[in-house]
Amino acid sequence: MAPLEIPNRAARRLWLWTTGLAPTPTGPLDVGAIIDRIGFLQIDTIRNVTRAHNHIVWTRNQNFREGQLWPLLSRRQLFEHFTHDASLIPMEVYPYWRTQFARLGAKVAASPWYASGLGRRAVADIKGRIAREGALSTHAFDTRIEGPREMWARPPHKKALDAMWYAGELSTCFRENFVKYYNLTERVVPAPLRDADLPDDACQDWLNRRALDRLSMATTGDLQRFWGAMSATEARAWAAEARGLVPLRVEGADGTWRDAWGPEDIEARLAACPAPTTRLRVLNPFDPAVRDRTRLARLFGFEYVNEMFVPAAQRRWGYYVYPVLEADRFVGRVEVKADRGAGWMRLTGFWPEPGVRWSAARVGRLAAELLRFARLAGIGTVDMDMLDRRME
Questions:
Q1: Fewest CB atoms within 10 A around its CB: which of 129, 283, 284, 289?
Q2: CA pair distance 114, 275, nearest whole angstrom
Q3: Alpha carbon of residue 162 to chain centroid
Q4: 244-302, pLDDT tens digit by residue?
Q5: DSSP structure string for 53-97
Q6: 3-class SS of residue 135
Q7: DSSP run (H or E) holding 31
Q8: 122: which residues sit within 8 A by CB, 6+ positions away?
Q9: DSSP 3-state assignment of 12?
Q10: pLDDT digit string (tens) for 82-96?
């Protein structure tokens, strides 16, 4: 089969439609459907205006409000585990996640702390407490960090909880004020999903097809990075053997063409794909549209670097910087800071993309989106003096 060629403009529009950013973000709200469409929802502890998971859902439907996400975890519509980071995943994925449980569990078991016997004893003690007492958070334990207090150091009880969580022995049953509560997996995950015994190749095939469905077009690197649950070698081997894939040639923003794969209905998707809304969007750094920085640069020619853990003097842009999307191109980036208690939000950084003219109308669209974003966090005062100074 000759590869189907997709020009760059069509590729960008297809991707934005696939990931839920083509329509105007209004209408009836279905949080579960939004998470299903994007594949999974990354969650993050940093609250800059609002936490990443709230922002990502809100970007796709601005009727969303904080607090509407966690009931889906409590009602077992989602489970929490590790993709490339902590994420909420539709519960129907659970039977196919067994390979990830096994791999991450084996990685923990191979650590010196666990192999020394200290980890095994801590795991047994904590699992026994949860079996007797029910769901517990890390605050129910008081062990202390051993050795130097490095940035990512964890006390023994947190290591033990993580070891069982990564291996699938414990599951997140709910979160309260963002604090995770652990329980035995048999008390959290429905038995038919928990007990499904699927071979590894069937799990990998299902996850890859699920990823391709939520990417619409993908290199094997895109597939590998989507879940973060397999190696690049495994992704290439799967694509070489899988049936029903459509070979593609996709044009990048720089005019180069790359080989990729599409689902069987790729032509129907291209025909149905609408032009994206012209409403300007301020996207979260962890939004699925921009999370894969390699794919982002290839399709849009937009460079994005997360500088949260870069020393301030070495940052090119800022601490928490939001990409700005208009229609099917990125037109700039902004840094916003907020004090929710005091009720204010301030624009502290504004970087237009080269070649983008920021007219009064475009500045007005950005200001309107920032005001909408502030309302999500219950903020009433927004300082955008920087925009007035930069407007042509």
A1: 129
A2: 53
A3: 20
A4: 999 999 999 999 999 999 999 999 999 999 999 999 999 999 999 999 999 999 999 99
A5: HHHHHHHH-TT--TTSSHHHHHTTSEEEEESSSEEEEEGGGGGGG
A6: coil
A7: helix 31-38
A8: 143, 156, 157, 159, 160
A9: helix
A10: 998 999 999 999 999
φ/ψ of 273, rounded to 5, equals: -65, 120
**Predicted TM-score (pTM) of this structure:** 0.94
Residues in CB range of 71: below 8 A, 6 or more apart: none
Burial class, 274, CB count within 10 angstroms (exposed 0-12 / middle 13-18 / buried 19+) = exposed
Q: Are 245 and 263 in contact (CB under 8 A)?
A: yes
d(CA 84, CA 227): 7
Question: Which has the closest alpha carbon to 335: 324, 354, 350, 325?
Answer: 350
User: How far is it, in rounded angstroms, from Cα 155 to Cα 381?
Assistant: 40
Tokens of 195: 């007990």
How does DSSP assign 320-379, residue by residue?
SEEEEEETTEEEEEEEEEEETTTTEEEEEEEEEPTT----HHHHHHHHHHHHHHHHHTT-
